[in-house]
Amino acid sequence: MKIGIYAKSVRDNKHEIGFSMLCNALAEQGHEIFCTQSLVDYIHIHLSPNFPVKAFDFVDAKDPWLDALICVGGDGTLLETLSLVRDSNVPVLGLNTGRLGFLAGMSVDGIGKAIGDIQKGNFTIESRSLLHLETSVPVFDYNFGLNDFVIHKKETSSMIVVHTYLNGEFLNSYWSDGLIVSTPTGSTGYSLSCGGPIIFPKSDTFAITPIAPHNLNVRPVVVSDNVVISFEIEGRASSYLTSLDARSNAIAGNVQMAVRKADHALQLIRLPEDNYMDTLRNKLNWGFDRRN
Asked: Residues 6 or more apart from 26 whose CB is under 8 A from it?
């Protein structure tokens, strides 16, 4: 099989061990290994100068030559794989060497079994919807996000007003520190920390969650993902911050922005023991009350 490996960093001990174990396990079983150029250089310096690995930038949808991509890290690392697989439908599996890990479900101890399950086809594919950001001027090199799109005031500025529309129809003016539009996948991220709801992956919805709203009766709302959500920003500052997953850029207040559901999705590999409801209970410590 042709398997790609991606890691944001392998500098600390935990990431290095997981990355090295994965590379060695794949090589021992005769798989073709592909990495970004920086990781190829790392492998040749730290593992072996003759280690069989090839460099790649991303997978083209016209020629989806990779069988799978495995990322080493936490959920933030998995988010970055989106720009590598793009709309190729190459399935992605997360090796969790981070902390929380809602998306990266494979543990370092389970590398051997996971590779065996992938070889045997003993897994399921879970399609995760993406956000597509459209702007009147270029803001990001890659305008798709798995988790969320965020409009945020700058650190020292006062609150902003985000006028929000659904298919051109006025919804609300959010007077707050900012606004989050999250996918079901992103509902357990920044949106959750701001009081947003947990949404199951195949719910076909977006959550719109204000960040520290001035009016306490303004609550998060859940809308269908077949709408286009557009924004107008008002405030004292001349520029604001926008984020698409882990990428952030400053924009002028007159930039027109809208988000909608992307035409393609991210394909996540789910191993037999990987269950979303188990993940929720374990990661959020549901039912683990020390008083009992």
From this structure: 3, 5, 33, 115
Within this chain, do residues 255 and 279 fall inside the same structural domain, yes or no? no
225 within 8 A of 204, measured Cβ to Cβ: yes
Q: Which residues are catalytic?
A: 75
Phi, psi of 47 (to 5 degrees): -100, -65
What one-letter code names the amino acid at 161? V
Which residues touch 118 (CB under 8 Å, ≥6 apart)? 1, 68, 93, 269
Other CB atoms within 10 Å distance of the CB of residue 106: 26
Is 290 contained in some domain? no
| Nearest Cα to Cα of residue 209 among 250, 235, 174 | 174
Q: What's the pLDDT at 191?
A: 97
- Token pair in block for residue 210: 């204000």
216, 151: one domain: yes
Contact predicate 231/210, CB 8 Å: no
pLDDT digits (tens, 9 = 90+) for 130-153: 999 999 999 999 999 999 999 999
Between 114 and 290, name the one with better pLDDT. 114
In which band, very low, low, confident or very high, does the pLDDT at 290 lie, cut at 50, 70 and 90?
Answer: low
Instruction: Give me 217's structure tokens.
Output: 């009766």
Sign of CA dihedral 233, 235, 237, 242: negative
Residue 277 structural domain: 2-123+271-283
Cβ neighbors of 99 (< 8 A, separation 6 or more) are 74
> Is there a contact between 93 and 233 (Cβ–Cβ < 8 Å)?
no
Structure-block tokens of residue 273: 């023991």
30 and 74 housed in the same domain: yes
Vertex 269, ends 264 and 270: CA angle to 5°?
A: 125
Question: Per the domain annotation, does 137 fall within a domain?
Answer: yes
pLDDT, tens digit, 9 for 90 and up, residues 214-238: 988 999 999 999 999 999 999 888 8
Same domain assignment for residues 107 and 142? no
CATH assignment of the domain containing 73: 3.40.50.10330
